[in-house]
Amino acid sequence: MNTMMVVLGAIVLFLGFNSLQSHAQVAVDKNNSGSVWQRTITTENHDDGLVARSISSNLALGKASFASSTDDITNRPARMAFDGNTGTRWSSAYSNEQWIYVDLGSVQPITSVVLQWDIAYALMFQIQTSNDETTWNTVYYNYNGNGGTNTIPLLTSTRYVKMYAWQRATQWGYSLFEMEVWGSATNPPSGPINVLDYLRSISGRQTVIGMHNREPNSSPAVQTNAVYSITNRWPGLWSGDFLFTADDVNHRWTMINEALNQWRSGSIINIMLHVVPPTQSEPGNWNGGVVSRLSDAQWHELITDGGTLNRAWKVRLDNYAQYLQYLKDRGVQVLFRPFHEMNQGVFWWAGRPGSSGTAALFRLTRDYLVNTKGLTNLIWVWNMQDLDLNWSVYNPGNNYWDIFSLDVYNGDGFTTQKYNTAMSVANGKPIAIGECSTLPTSYQLASQQNWVFVMSWAELTFSSNTNAQIQALYSASNVITKDELPKFY
Question: What does the alpha-carbon distance between residue 381 and residue 426 come to, in Å, rounded to a whole number?
């Protein structure tokens, strides 16, 4: 490990002393890829015996990022400027006005921004900050850029940091190997935190372990309890489902009350929607119900506002909304995954690519539940299966979902190709393993560290993994169980 020592001016903190002489040094540690990952600032007072230490970190590392454009969405997306690897880069389209920004997850005190340019750099650019992603304040500007590495001292607090450029130096666009945002690492929040903000904050570092509890809804914690009996640890995420049979429909309130109890005990809540089509009434069946097919004419009627099936689906959503409103009224945030495996053609809602396909039903459902029913407690999860890698054709639109999740079942496991494709499709948003039978190892999660949660599927957890494998994952330092979660609000 290489270490470079840089002397900084001291920051003097008045701690009730009349005089404080300080000395500050910064150690910049690099990992094997040559990327800077942490600065340690040590402030010492040799006269009074006071020693105060604080950590300065690259707060942008692995965080959600967004850009005006990219010239190659697969190889040079926005996230490449925040991956800690100077062997990768973000590259914009070949035009003057472009931007890239990062979401730090919460308001953080920052001390500098570092831009590491490729040969395609900006002659004129600004650094802007925002706390709401709408109003931007210019805190630095440069009308005579010269590329290379720009270290820009700043003393401010912000959540979003943007590089906004309007004059290119070359015939290409703009290209950044890395955009770093340095600041004093804050302690974990002492008060409650939003679930989505928390998941964003752990991306690149740790993964929440979760468990789905499948039917019956009369016993909505069977698998969660079973994994505790093996590991003596509770999963960090509990999952349930509205389901469709008569017994399960009759016990939906049992499932919802379990969700409330799990939330109050500290779990993250995930709820799914395996239901029959609006051509049928509830309750229904798996075969001929959940597993069925609408005709193209029926599909068009479903996604067209005012159509008979469209109205029937909204009546169905009114029913689901009462349960979700009950949770909202009690402060429960819900990871809501309404359309399971959107590329899996066996389900009535799935297997229809394109803007007017399954994505249209996702948009319709979100618009109705959020805009009409006011369910602002839902965190929307877009879910695909690893049948292929052509997931973008099912994207409902980046403004319609918060987390991309992948179900891993096709036999070749947690491949780098799947991980990289998920990162590309998510374009800076959190990614997760929505379902799996065989669990990943902690080593696999360490090499694919942006998965924010992994949820195993109910009874398959125990038939596809040994007790020793389950115990090893639940006890791994990069895996988060319920006892390690913060308090949510």
Answer: 11
